[in-house]
Amino acid sequence: MNATTNQATSIKLVLLGESAVGKSSIVLRFVSNDFAENKEPTIGAAFLTQRVTLPDDTIIKFEIWDTAGQERFASLAPMYYRNAQAAVVVYDLTSPQSFLKARHWVKLLREQSGNNIIIALVANKLDLCEEQAQPETEQEETEPRGNVRKVAKEEGQKLADDEGLMFFETSAKTGEGINNVFLSIAEKIPLKKKGNEQESATFNGNGQSENSTSSNGRIDLNARNGSSEACGC
Amino acid sequence: MAVVKERRASMAERKPSFIGKESPMIIPHLAGMEDPLPEKTPEEVDVVIVGTGLIQSILAAALSWQGSHVLHIDKNEYYGDTTPTLTIEQLTQWVRNVNKGLIPFYTNAQIYVSSDKIGKNYASRDFGIDLVPKVLFAQSDMLTLLVKSRVYQYMEFMPLSNFHTFENDSFEKLTNTKQEIFTDQTIPLMTKRNLMRFLKFVLNWENYPEIWEGYSNKSMAEFLSEKFKLNQTQSSELIFSIGLCYNNDVATPQCLQRIRRYLASFDIYGAFPVLFSKYGSAGEISQGFCRSAAVGGATYKLNTALESYDPTTKIVKFSDGSKVHVSERVVVSPTQTPDPKSKNIPKQNYKIHRLVVAIEKDCKQWFGEQESATVVVFPPGSLNGENFEAVQAIIFGSNSEICPQGTNLWYLTSVEKGENGKRLLDLALKTMLKSISRESIEVDDNVVKFDNKTGSPVINEKYLKEELNELVEPKILMKCYFEQYTSTCPFSIAQPEIFKTQKKDTTDDTTNGNKDNGVIYSPMPSSEISYDGAITAAKVLYETIVGSDDDFFDVDFEDEDITTTNNNRMSYSESAITDDEGEEDDIIMKN
Amino acid sequence: MHGIKRKNFTQELIKQKKLKDQAKIKYYRELNNQLLIAYKTNHKYDLESFKLTSIILDLNPELNVAWNFRRKIILNYFLQNTDSNVAFDWNQELNFTMLQLKRYPKVYWIWNHRTWCLRYVNDIQMWQNELHLVDKMLAVDARNFHGWTYRRYVVSQLKKNEPSNSDLLNETEFDYTTVKINKDISNFSAWHQRASLFPGKLSQLQGYSAKLELIKNEISYLTNAIFTDAEDQSVWIYLKWFITDATIVGILQTGEGGDGYLNVLKQFEDSIQIINNDEIEFSGKDNNWCLKILIVIQTIFFDKLQVEKGGRTDDRRIMLEKLVEVDPLRKNRYLYLLK
């Protein structure tokens, strides 16, 4: 009846990809079901959160980190990769250069985060392609279709297979495939993570006022103890 | 041939079959594994900041959010500059660079790394060593800014409740909370009254000038003994462990401020005054503010050094040959100056001695329950009467994530004048090592027997003595010592004056070939164990550039996540500020 | 030149926030209307209405009409229905209020609904859990007056349900006040609670010496308290009650050849004099509470116990005059006492 009684598992997910491949649009679409044409590069959103409820009612809360441009000159800080359980590497299927970069990011991710991180390779801007059946005859090939796709689906799939990634083709503009990316990642989160996270405040037996300290000792800086009202009744 | 833009075409693209083909391209298997092709640096910015240390990172973020376009560079391949968090390998390289003279204002760097442990049992990258270790007071401008700027969301914080003082050859844990004073049966009643009276006074000390003004020229120790009748031990604990002052010369108002900082920090997040961040202290916060700056629009370039700056053309040149035009100012960390011999760099007159040691031991008995760090203070005179300045130490356990399971990182700092600093730090280290070994002796059946007739315990003196003699000190995995110079006097904040001298004259003098005329040099880190002073220093720099600090971080981040609202379910909360905990933006996935 | 980029962005944010707020308010009003129609007009007690109350209470738990409606639905729909599909889960209902309380710990209506649930089920385990809950809330805010009142209520319900445990409950409640006072001496509610429990604790003890020992321990505890913090009124108020409470006085008077009570008073008088003199030495001023309590003690000496004036000095006049000066709000009272 009340979904909030379920406990959510928090997952840090990092985004990688060249600027202008549309990674921010993908997130925007996922988080608010919105899409803004020719949106200015992300300013302001340090990370966004969005919950996903799986068919079996478990809730995954994604904490999505955007690179904030620090990837442009290979200047991502260790803080960015730290404890990331999932990554979405995006390229623009009309830009081969962005695919090359995507390969590079995958390599970097494996270096920084090892093999435990779930990586989804995403080819974006599917809407720009007029998806037809594969050209069978030479005749069809010589007729220009205005097909702007420059990276074959097989290419992406191959990289995914070689590196153990999930692979998707999406359009942030139409929304096609976006939710599927995150749902698939959510489904892969190992079961052992579920149930570890507690949404409720925990209290320590020795009487400490600990509404701001969780059971593993971490402190939520936002949860300052209110000053007690001296009641002289 | 293929169209060449700014970059070299990749192998695949140079293949003739690529031209004019409209079907999807097949990309060679290994292409893209090389480093990505370089991006272009912006040509026009407002401010260039050189060095990604703590103060510069705060400044970068403040400027970015104010709307200035910032280009933030660092000649190293890591963030942090003078306040980085380094792996053992990086630290080793850093020591080499210091000794080659490549890093100004650092001297006498030495490092020992246990070759049969590091790289075998423990990996270099499992250690995160801060060149400037710090603790965060719950009531402080840094914490407030971390919350306001949302940078805290990038980090994890843990409590630190235990402070130890070394006196009379032993380490005493501080018991200075009101509760401890009240319940302690051994403290005489009048003493309780005196202590409590002082604690109450100090929380509000500015409002009682009649009590302390008479002592503004006398030492704090005199003030405490004459006015509040506190004894030497209590006084020493208050000044050096609670106030974290370095010596007795601290002025009374300053010391009161520092003591108050500790007490006022209690009970904000729990029964502890101080927090620390996991994965590193100042290094983490530097990264956090850099990220904030990036989100606000700043451009980041590591591995880039400042070549020169011409204040007449306002052109900045970088080591990779690129240049940029600056509309406002250039801020430079003294360690990344293009000319170490330049007279424009402010004098760095104070020396800080730092020692960091990784030991193969878990010092759990020193930490509070469920905690992983502690502060240890050696007041002046406590090290065989030889130290005039206090030695401050911070000990971290592996739950801080800066060292692996089964190890600890110990940081020791001294501001001793003259040449004794290193020796005193070694002495302090030895004292702590002895103590930690002693405390972990297993008192087993050989040491304590029970008398057959009376049943009372009998200690086998001889056996105990043998055990003590065989004390094995914990193994040292890594030990690093260095000296850092700073212009900030111990427990004072960076003075605005040092920036003012750089503002005018040098701008006009272009004939003498200086590479750094017209730049503003930022301060070197201070010896302060807390983050106090860092934001003040950033504000002074900010004001120098912008004209005033009125709009320093004057941004409302509350509704930053404007994209998280979902039209289906909204949350009406009293504060009208939605945070994701209250949001019910579930996406119910259907199969 | 500076800040153009950011300011535009900020303006945009403000605009968006305004739009968001307007949308929120409109949405809430719609829900409210829906609720009133379902409740007052249609008396629609069913699952759909129940969910509606959940949604609107999540937004605004102070909407009492929604709580009323919710209770009516529970009584008329869930509990009337023998169909197992609509069985009512009280624990889940308590969880619902718990979530609200975490966000709004002081909203009366939530507590009200919670106690309604507890009373309806009246299960002792639930009341014990409730005591744990109050523990936690008082851990967060030890001076929350509502917390203490609620605590007393919960304890009384527990006693009602299990009268044999009454004594044990008194013990633990008394010890609880000790814990709270140790943490923070100036916890008025804790001292107040202590005073209400002390007589009970005393009467539970058998025999004179046991009772005397309890009283002596309390005297130590109190003395410790006035030395540690002589500024806090809660301690002095408790002290005043303690030295004038008939039962306590009675027990003291039967000891030490009839002088037990007198000796205790003298002890306190000495301590308080030391404290007051110390205060004068430090700040030049008296501690008003010291003066007030000394007056109380001396009144007992001279007026009630008829102690010979030769042995002890009667400073009441001087002290009252001092008080008139430094505590003008109560001037009339002191002047009255001077007569």
From TrEMBL, chain A:
Compositionally biased region (Polar residues): 198-217, 224-233
Keywords: Nucleotide-binding
Sequence segments annotated as region (Disordered): 132-156, 194-233
Domain of life: Eukaryota
GO molecular function: GTP binding; GTPase activity
Ranges annotated as biased composition (Basic and acidic residues): 142-156
Family annotation (SUPFAM superfamilies): P-loop containing nucleoside triphosphate hydrolases
TM regions (residue ranges): none
UniProt cross-references to PANTHER family, sorted A to Z: PTHR47978
Protein name: Probable Vacuolar protein sorting-associated protein 21
Species in which this protein is naturally found: Saccharomycodes ludwigii
Organism classification: Eukaryota, Fungi, Dikarya, Ascomycota, Saccharomycotina
Automatic annotation (TrEMBL), chain B:
GO CC terms, sorted: cytosol; nucleus; Rab-protein geranylgeranyltransferase complex
Gene3D superfamilies given in the database record: FAD/NAD(P)-binding domain, Guanine Nucleotide Dissociation Inhibitor, domain 1, Guanine Nucleotide Dissociation Inhibitor, domain 2
Top-level division of the source organism's lineage: Eukaryota
Biological process, per Gene Ontology: small GTPase-mediated signal transduction; vesicle-mediated transport
SUPFAM superfamilies: FAD-linked reductases, C-terminal domain, FAD/NAD(P)-binding domain
Alphabetically ordered keywords of this record: Transferase
One Pfam family here: GDI
Record carries keyword Transferase: yes
A molecular function GO annotation: transferase activity
Keyword Transferase: yes
Physiological role: Substrate-binding subunit (component A) of the Rab geranylgeranyltransferase (GGTase) complex. Binds unprenylated Rab proteins and presents the substrate peptide to the catalytic component B. The component A is thought to be regenerated by transferring its prenylated Rab back to the donor membrane.
Similarity section: Belongs to the Rab GDI family.
PANTHER family, A to Z: CHM, RAB ESCORT PROTEIN 1, RAB GDP-DISSOCIATION INHIBITOR
Name by which UniProt lists this protein: Rab proteins geranylgeranyltransferase component A
Gene source species: Saccharomycodes ludwigii
TrEMBL record, chain C:
Name this polypeptide is given: Geranylgeranyl transferase type-2 subunit alpha
Ribonucleoprotein is among the record's keywords: no
Documented EC number(s): 2.5.1.60
Transmembrane regions listed in the UniProt entry: none
Organism: Saccharomycodes ludwigii
Role this protein plays: Catalyzes the transfer of a geranyl-geranyl moiety from geranyl-geranyl pyrophosphate to cysteines occuring in specific C-terminal amino acid sequences.
UniProt keywords, alphabetically: Prenyltransferase, Repeat, Transferase
GO MF annotation list: Rab geranylgeranyltransferase activity
